[in-house]
Amino acid sequence: MNASGRKNGVMDVDRFKCVCDYLKKNDFDKVFLMGGEPTIHPFFGEICHIAQDYFQTVYLFTNALCEEPLLQFHPRENDIVIYNASFLHKITPNKLLLSYPGKRIIDVVITTSDFNLNYVEDIVRAYRLSPERISVQLVIDSICNVFREKKILLENLNNTYTYLRGEGVNASFECGLPVCFTYGEKLPDKIVKKAKCDTSAILIDSHFNLRLCNVHSDILVNLFNGDKLIPYQIVKNYIEMAKLQNQLASLKKICHKCILYDTTCNGKCHIPLSTIKMSDIVENTKLPWLWKGM
Questions:
Q1: Cβ-count burial of 137 within 10 angstroms (0-12 exposed, 13-18 middle, 19+ buried)?
Q2: Is the per-residue pLDDT at 114 higher than 80?
Q3: Distance between CA atoms of residues 253 and 249, nearest Å
Q4: pLDDT at residue 16 is higher than 60
């Protein structure tokens, strides 16, 4: 998802199967197939079959540009296909795989680009193909400086949400942002708030490097030591260490001034980013106790 943190590479299928077995034995029941674009993998169909053999739910995140490999994925009732809304103008009904069960989600990333009426009309057209099975999820672009670009992001968010709801589209807003970003702001009424990071999930790249998340994409450790997988407790240790480092960075930067820290919010992944300065937060937030005494 974050190209700056990736190297090009094709995930080895045999090792992928080993990792699926490894995660299954450590109580994982869901897997996301993501990228870049997963359908360009030369053995995409085989990877999908392996994933379905091991996990109750397989999520596929795709821009659906490559139709032939996409049609090799046969979603089950619990499986979910997530489509990148930026490519909806090129997504035919066939690519929505509606002859198979499971949910379909249109993922709409709210960016700093000007509000695009054609873009939201594409979303409406796709949604109406099967409104009982297709939902629309709005997310804020986490790669930009969300505080510095806050005004335009919230304006685009509300314009998109208002238009979609006016057209009868079942749209929700996946928040995933620290409380200081959202407090006192006009937000969609249908909002899923996640002001604390979920570290029960792990991110593995095509070279089997462990990473914390798409926002913090530094390599933590490789899952393989030679031909063998490292003990899962070591994976947990690295995730915990990365999480604590983020929390410490948040506290040092500004969160030690916030009375909501570690109750309803832990700064999420955004506050520790080096691209976000304390002044960006102070100047673009409506939480007065964040800057009191500074």
A1: middle
A2: yes
A3: 6
A4: yes
Written as one letter, the residue type at 235 is: V
* DSSP three-state, residue 237: helix
- Specify whether the CB–CB gap between 106 and 123 falls below 8 A: yes
Q: What's the per-residue H, E or C state across 158-202?
A: HHHHHHHHHCCCCEEEECCCCHHHHCCCCCCCCEECCCCCCCCCC
Question: pLDDT band at 294, cuts 50/70/90?
Answer: very low
On the question of pLDDT at 2 being above 70, the answer is no
Q: How big is the chain, counted in residues?
A: 294
